Amino acid sequence: MTLAEENYLKSIYHLENRGISGVSTNAIAQKIEAKPSSVTDMVKRLAEKELLHHIKYQGVYLTEEGKKRAKQIIRKHRLWEVFLVEKLNFSWDEVHDVAEQLEHIKSKKLITELDRFLEFPKKDPHGDPIPDQYGNFQPLDEQILAQLEVGESAICAGVKDSSKAFLHYLDQKGIKLGDTISIVEKEPFDQSMVIALDERQLTITDRISKNISVKRI
Question: Which of 8, 17, 177, 188 is 20 to 30 A off residue 45, Cα-Cα?
Fold first, then answer.
């Protein structure tokens, strides 16, 4: 497949995983940042390769082969992110763009050996699960921070928003994966909350708490 085709498959897969039943060409255009006409042409091409189905007025659905290909790309992307953070000292807000380039490397042996070299990681630096060589994910028993109540504590396990701006915000606030977060106060009006973190307290907005994944302790 071409680089563009791989990007489309991965983007459609992510949109489907958000619970969208039948992904519209407009949603794909927004995700890919492309013109709707270009999306229509690519959808036709991927449909001819039997990687997706396009049902008029219902949207786009990946075939099983399409899902398999998408998960292979995601696997490579997330393994490279682990490598960049653990072995090359990249920060978690720097790795996405570099991994976007590395994910298109075709060598299966390279990815197999990379996985072995990294000792078969289950999550990337943002807490997202890494598919194994067969495309299987390890189920994650996680909630979002916003679901916790006053007095509860949890381990920071990942982020829903992996944009540079959000990750940079977390770095500024000193919030990172593995931190223990306790809920001190919760404002009923706007759902903002005061959290305890490393013997200090921070106030975060509802938007922030809805984009942090945690595991209750």
Answer: 17
